[in-house]
Amino acid sequence: MKTPSFHLLVTGNEQLSGKRQDKHFAKVIELLKARGLALSQVTFLGDDEARIASVIADATRRGDVLLCSGGIGATPDDRTRQACAAALGVPIERHVEGAALIEAQYGARAYPHRVLMADFPQGARLIPNPVNRVSGFSMGDCHFVPGFPEMAWPMLEWVLDTLYPHLHNTAPPSEYLLRAKGNAAEGDLLDLMEAVLAAHPGLEFSSLPFRGNDQQEPHIEFGFKGAESLAASAYRQFEAGLRQRGARIEPRIAPSD
């Protein structure tokens, strides 16, 4: 089974105005990496219902796992719940269990405003909130949590560990690196790159040219990342091709992160 792409959506005008600095991007990379997964895309949006709905609809169509933080409160600027309902073509309705959790947490103070945070797109499943019991929600593979890191991060961990344990890969991918020196130029090596990628579907490949300075001569650093057998095979094929073209090769040690 192909692993779906993971897409992070961070919403909120405060992120784009600079009033708050995003912390979710780095944390989600960390959470995914700990489970042998990787982030494919990140999107930052203001509180624009139509734009948020468009991202949700696109992620659903592609089959991505969408992790969204922010915009599920009860204030007028929180539009993520409404955007999700619009994207999926369903109405907003009060979630009985979600409302009961809010009532248990706040008693009479749940009304008239806090209980609005239990109004979700029809058919939503709850994501438990360990901080104040005000749930997030899931629709298919789209998951919505508050913008507060102390709530969002354990809730996202719950999503990854409860809903996607079958995707976890505790064996980290292998990465092989080399530097090509001499007369190597990216434009002259495109055919070799394409041949290696065609022979190794699923390989993560990188090509980073360095123009040179007083300490180092010009070179290109190539990376081959994936399952051990895949990365090793691609590295060997590419290395052989470089040698045939007279390039000087310097093997590199892959970074630990």
What does this structure look like?
The protein contains 8 helices and 12 strands. Strands 2-1-3-8-7-6 form a 6-stranded mixed sheet, sandwiched between helices. It has a 4-stranded antiparallel sheet with strand order 10-11-9-12. By secondary structure, the chain is an alpha/beta fold. It has 2 domains: 6-167, MoaB/Mog-like domain (Molybdenum Cofactor Biosythetic Enzyme, Chain A); 174-252, Alpha-Beta Plaits (2-Layer Sandwich), CATH 3.30.70.260. 33% of the residues are buried. Helix 2 packs parallel to helix 6 and helix 3 (49-62) packs across helix 4 (80-88). Strand 7 and strand 8 (142-145) form a beta hairpin. 35% of the residues lie in helices and 25% in strands.
Helix tally equals: 8
What is the CATH level 1 assignment of the largest domain?
Alpha Beta
For the secondary structure, the number of strands is: 12
Q: Bin the strand percentage.
A: 15-25%
Unreliable spans: none
Succession of helices and strands: EHHEHEHEHEEEEHEHEEHE
The secondary structure category is alpha/beta
Biggest sheet layout: 6 strands, mixed
> Can you give the helix content as a percent range?
25-40%
Average pLDDT, to the nearest integer?
A: 93
- In the CATH hierarchy, what is the architecture of the largest domain at level 2? 3-Layer(aba) Sandwich
Backbone CA Rg: 23 Å
Number of domains: 2
Return the CATH topology of the largest domain. Answer: Molybdenum Cofactor Biosythetic Enzyme, Chain A
The CATH homologous superfamily name of the largest domain equals MoaB/Mog-like domain
Give the overall silhouette: elongated
End-to-end separation: 26 Å
Within the largest sheet, what's the order of strands?
2-1-3-8-7-6
